[in-house]
Amino acid sequence: MTRKRIVVKIGSSLLTDQKRLTPRWAFMQRIMEDISLLREQGYDILLCSSGSVALGMKMMGVDPENAGLRDKQASAACGMPLLLNAYKQIGHEYDLNIAQILVTLGDFEIHSRFLNTKNTLQRLLQAGVIPIINENDTITTEEIRVGDNDRLAAKVAQMVLAEHLIILTSVDGLYDKDPSDPEAKLVEEVQDVSQYLSVTEGVSALGSGGMLTKLQAANMAQNSGCHTIIANGETDNPIASALFGEHPRTICLAHSEPLATWHSWLSERLHVAGSIVVKNEAADAVEKEERGIQREDVINIEGPYVKGDVIHIYDENGTERARGMSDFTSEETEILVRNLDIPVKQLLGYHSRAVLVELGNLTTLDERHLPWEQPEPVKQTKIEPFPDETAN
Ligand code: GLU
């Protein structure tokens, strides 16, 4: 029997007693019992568990309202063993073995590290161990952190080719209006998450939210062929009842034609290093899968990025048309683009094809992708060759 994979994300508010900042043992018991039952039914579960920061605050003598970055980083260091200890103790009752995986942005965004993390997760699953994954908050700073466990869990789902991502939270799912509005209705099924972005923005602003990152996570998951269920965790068998629809919930359906693994890695990003603007005909050619990006195509470069980074590819109208892995740094790209008539070896000192992004390392973006959070401005200053250097 092929085992099915489910990634379950559990938020801090479910795991910790907000007043005493201690683990909610009874809730965690329900989770572990549920995992044990689902394992018997052929499901492998990976947990993305929050809670380390909240649980460590007591030891650090800080409270959630006025904790600064250092306080939170130190609290995560104190809270992580408490969290894992609780899982370990409860797991023992159900004969479940657990393992801790702490990740940072690079473990998803750098392909070699992505594969490394994936292989470790596969090995743990093979041995019947439950991976408990969290961000390594103690060492992460703004530039290298994912920031929320919703999108982190979606990346894990993409990594292990999970069939379901279940996001357990303290509301029943996504509402079509601010949930405090008596007219608000639960949305049971979502195909296109972009329809609900404006609603979630409103909800977040009122402080009852966190729904925006959940929908972003759902979009990443659905593009990679994974269904996302957003459900209330305050119930018996929280995971199974969400999975089998025993309570109201929201399901964001996977696309029927998901992206291939490599294309999904290229497009479902948490961070994009830089961008280039290319002529419209080049963007069209990429879309038709005719060719990669050549140096003649480039109008503008926004760096810095390094070889192997994934970059946005915009057309002249400012529409993001593709994402791809660059074969050159942004500095090298600029030198190549400004000196079209000079061979690569002469400009960079090593021999290489003058293709900036190979066709095989490009993925086009269609309407199913949510727009990037902070669109890069498309500069109007076009790159022109240096007259002196091209003259000889
Ligand atoms: N990594 C954080 C923690 O363990 C939680 C982040 C989140 O819930 O999105 O407390």
Molecular structure report:
It is a single chain. Helices cover 38% and strands 20% of the residues. It contains 15 helices and 17 strands. It is elongated. The strands form four sheets. An eight-stranded mixed sheet has the order 5-6-4-1-7-9-10-8, sandwiched between helices. The protein has two domains: 260 residues, Carbamate kinase, CATH 3.40.1160; 93 residues, PUA domain (Archaeosine Trna-guanine Transglycosylase, Chain: A, domain 4, Roll), CATH 2.30.130. About 3% of the residues have low confidence. The longest helix has 25 residues. It is of the alpha/beta class and 392 residues long. The site of glutamic acid has 12 residues, from helix 3 and strand 6.
Quickly describe the structure.
With 392 residues, this protein is of the alpha/beta class. 38% of the residues lie in helices and 20% in strands.
Topology record:
Blueprint: E1 4-10, H1 12-15, E2 16-17, E3 22-23, H2 25-40, E4 43-49, H3 52-60, H4 69-93, E5 97-103, H5 106-109, H6 111-126, E6 129-135, H7 149-159, E7 164-169, E8 189-190, H8 197-205, H9 211-223, E9 227-232, H10 238-243, E10 250-252, H11 261-267, E11 274-278, H12 280-287, E12 293-294, E13 298-302, E14 310-314, E15 320-325, H13 330-338, H14 344-348, E16 355-357, E17 362-364, H15 387-391
Parallel strand pairs: 1-4, 1-7, 4-6, 5-6, 7-9, 8-10, 11-14
Antiparallel strand pairs: 2-3, 9-10, 11-13, 12-16, 14-15, 15-17
Helix pairs in contact: 2-4, 3-4, 7-9
The structure holds glutamic acid.
